[in-house]
Design brief:
By secondary structure, this protein is mainly beta. The chain has one helix at 137-144, and strands at residues 9-11, 36-39, 47-54, 67-76, 81-82, 93-94, 116-125, 148-158.
Length: 160
């Protein structure tokens, strides 16, 4: 399957597809993770991984692009929804964002940098991998690439 979008859907009660992410879900507000729900996981799904990435951000690190706001994995197949503000840590393992710490880090583009696009991406995996907490996005992708059997994304915007 690889990283091509599949029929699985990712939706939110917090913001509409392509719509503005509320301030409460940003670093300027309460930094609450948005509500997310995924529907239609493919047969054979054993676990999920979820990330949030802002490709509009200035380079975060050499050899990288954009900014990673959330890395969450080891989510059991029975988990198909995360409540707003729940951050998902009770359901899975947290990786390290480009803020240098685990957990959700909401939007906070540089002032005057214009509208940024935040891609929340859910991936269905064919195995429970039991990965150690604290992986970066690129470490996670290396571990899960051959196990992705479905994925899709939801994009929201934010501007300061």
């Amino acid at each position: 399957m690889g990283f091509a979008p599949s029929p699985m859907q990712l939706v939110s009660n917090t913001f509409e597809p392509g719509g503005a992410i509320p301030r409460r879900c940003s670093m300027e507000g309460e930094n609450q993770s948005p509500h997310l729900q995924w529907i239609g996981a493919p047969a054979g799904t054993r676990s999920f991984a979820l990330i949030c990435h802002d490709p509009d951000a200035p380079l975060a690190m050499p050899g990288s692009y954009g900014f990673v706001h959330w890395v969450l994995y080891n989510l059991p197949a029975s988990v198909t929804e995360l409540a707003e503000g729940g951050n998902g840590s009770a359901s899975g393992s947290e990786g390290i964002s480009d803020f240098g710490k685990p957990g959700y880090g909401g939007p906070m583009p540089p002032p005057g940098h214009g509208v940024h696009h935040y891609f929340f991406i859910v991936m269905a995996l064919d195995q429970e991998l039991g990965l150690q907490p604290g992986l970066t996005l690129w470490q996670l992708m290396t571990q899960i690439e051959s196990h992705v059997i479905g994925m899709n994304r939801l994009m929201g915007t934010y501007q300061r």
